[in-house]
Amino acid sequence: MSKKTIILFSGDYDKVMAAFVIANGAAAMDDEVTMFFTFWGLSALRKPKGTAAPGKTKTMLQKAFSTMLPKGPEKLGLSKMNFAGVGPVMMKKVMKAANVMPLSELIDTAREQGIKLIACTMSMDVMGIRAEELIDDIEYAGVATYLAEADEGNVNLFI
Amino acid sequence: MTATVEELKALSETTVVDARGVSCPGPILAAKKKIGSVQVGSVMEVLATDSGTLKDIPAWCKKMGHDFLGSFDDAGYLHLFLRKAK
């Protein structure tokens, strides 16, 4: 058994999808997999309707970021041919016709397979994203945690 | 060594995984899910339609330590066979 780590920096639907296909494939081959979500990649972990707990205030800029960032995997745009949101609709249509698992299902499968999902707390602070806005049962950590995991891995990807 | 089509067709008491109609990484996810219920030494057959599966199941077997026995294409339906080795 070996270990793979993936840094997900991108919040583009297609790139997030590629990351989860690789992660799920590795887990199906009995590899231990850790995914580290940072910057735009955090959007993939957001709950569709998650809101921060009352009492925790965000600065105006943090509010602006968290309002504008996509809420959850199905709201992500494409890295190419996004066409102001029409692109993802078309992409999902052809994917469905080709029986490709949608991103939300790939994420569910990743969790079922025990893939470790880690949210970067520094990015969360920058973007004003609180833990309550992210899906449950994930871990929160920083760069040292990622590096410690990467040291044990034989494949480390930055997507 | 891979078996001939006749030898593969003659394999009996195989556990069948139906991954027809699903794309990558569906077939290996299905194989992984099913292999747990297969006894060591028994044969598992994977049915698929995604052509990448012809390369992916042998690679999966190599990684997982199972013996890939061979495959054949029956009018677009792929039949892949492996023996659980551990």
Topology of this structure?
The complex is a heterodimer of chains A (159) and B (86).
Chain A: E1 3-8, H1 13-28, E2 32-37, H2 60-68, H3 86-97, H4 103-112, E3 116-120, H5 121-127, E4 139-141, H6 143-152, E5 155-158
Parallel strand pairs in A: 1-2, 1-5, 2-3, 3-4
Helix pairs in contact in A: 1-4
Chain B: H1 5-9, E1 15-19, H2 26-35, E2 43-48, H3 53-64, E3 67-74, E4 77-83
Parallel strand pairs in B: 1-2
Antiparallel strand pairs in B: 2-4, 3-4
The total tally of domains of chain A equals: 1
Instruction: Find the CATH topology of chain A.
Output: Hypothetical Protein Ychn, Chain: A
Low-confidence stretches of chain A: none
- CATH H-level superfamily of chain B: TusA-like domain
**Helicity level of chain A:** 40-55%
**What is the approximate shape of chain A?**
globular
> In the CATH hierarchy, what is the architecture of chain B at level 2?
2-Layer Sandwich
Kindly state the mean pLDDT of chain B as a whole number?
Answer: 92
The CATH fourth-level homologous superfamily of chain A: DsrEFH-like
Largest sheet features of chain A = 5 strands, parallel
Cα(first) to Cα(last) distance of chain A is 23 Å
Q: What is the total tally of β strands of chain B?
A: 4
Determine the number of helices of chain B (DSSP H or I, runs of at least 4 residues): 3
The helix-and-strand class of chain A reads alpha/beta
Instruction: Give the CATH level 1 class of chain A.
Output: Alpha Beta
- As a whole number of angstroms, the C-alpha radius of gyration of chain B is 11 Å
CATH topology of chain B: Translation Initiation Factor IF3
Compute the average pLDDT of chain A. Answer: 92
Q: What is the element string of chain B, with H for helices and E for strands? A: HEHEHEE
Strand order of the largest sheet of chain B: 1-2-4-3
C-alpha geometry of chain B? globular
